[in-house]
Amino acid sequence: MNFEDIKLEKDPTIIFMGTPDFSVPILKGIMEHYKVRAIVTQPDRKVGRDGKVIFSPVKQVAFDNDILCLQPEKIRDILQDINVLEPDLIITCAYGQILPLEMLQIPRLGCINVHASLLPKLRGGAPIHHAIMDGFSKTGVTIMYMDKGMDTGDIISQREIPISNDDTAETLHDKLSVLGRDLLLETLPSILNGTNSRTSQDEAEATYGFNITREDEHIDFSKTKRQIVNKVRGLNSWPGAYCILDDKILKVWKCREGERIYDLGTDGEITRIYDDGFGVKTSNGEVVFTEVQLEGKRKMAAKDFINGYHEKLEGKILR
């Protein structure tokens, strides 16, 4: 169906809510076919030691296109502003706050969300990371109606993609962002015309992909080598998986499963030096770290790290 074929009584008034890079292709896709009346994003933040103020990628789109941009600390603070704008539809994507019921009731056509998982799997704020960390073979995007729960609303449309063995959170993020844009643009005409389908989620099938914690980032060497490889992939390129070497944080950006099996020794023990890195004992063999970053240093190939390290690595215990 071509967008030119969609007949509406008037151009819909759309408000978009989003914050990170993931939201940008989706917002730009909407703007190519519809007028976005306002954009809501998270407030500017100070980062770094110098307190430099940065604003969200979504705000940059608003700035570049002269679109009204609202940045409330709490979404309730702009309830009156949204009421005045009289939106037909609110579209959210990785905004960062749960919308209160009073907000959900404002748009004539409701509030819809672009979520980066096949709901009801991986509800929550970090579905992309967890899809890889949890060993999923596929994931996808869901367009859904929002309700007062966290990603619990009715499903409008879904599309899945496979997760390849070399996907990281970064590569999967980019694939899903484009997939979300395309699926949303295919789905929007039926939403605006009131002809879309909606399906309740099966609560018995629900799982969660909550925001990543510091504990999630830590590598547990009592896990299997596959679980550790998945963790490293799922946390690349942000925030990164880590362990402790000689009381310093060692981030691990890339690794592979090793072929050796160790019946003796301690989980976390550096077992062997290879051409591309160093092996570490796990519960069922070894994992080979191939790209690492020691605290205070730059990211580097593990073979360069080995050559520059001032002590013998074999036999050391990572924790």
Describe it.
This protein is α/β, with parallel strands linked by helices. Helix content is 26%, strand content 26%. The protein has helices at 23-33, 57-64, 79-85, 101-104, 127-133, 169-193, 214-217, 225-234, 302-308, and strands spanning 14-18, 36-40, 45-47, 52-54, 68-70, 89-93, 111-115, 138-145, 155-162, 241-245, 248-257, 270-274, 277-282, 285-294, 300-301. A seven-stranded mixed beta sheet has the order 5-2-1-6-7-8-9. Strands 10, 11, 12, 13, 14 and 15 form a six-stranded antiparallel beta sheet that branches. The chain has a two-stranded antiparallel ribbon with strand order 3-4. Helix 1 (23-33) links the parallel strand 1 and strand 2 (36-40). The radius of gyration is 23 Å and the shape is elongated.
Keywords:
6-stranded antiparallel β-sheet, alpha/beta, 26% helix, 7-stranded mixed β-sheet, 319 residues
Outline the secondary-structure elements.
Elements: E1 14-18, H1 23-33, E2 36-40, E3 45-47, E4 52-54, H2 57-64, E5 68-70, H3 79-85, E6 89-93, H4 101-104, E7 111-115, H5 127-133, E8 138-145, E9 155-162, H6 169-193, H7 214-217, H8 225-234, E10 241-245, E11 248-257, E12 270-274, E13 277-282, E14 285-294, E15 300-301, H9 302-308
Parallel strand pairs: 1-2, 1-6, 2-5, 6-7
Antiparallel strand pairs: 3-4, 7-8, 8-9, 10-11, 11-14, 12-13, 13-14, 14-15
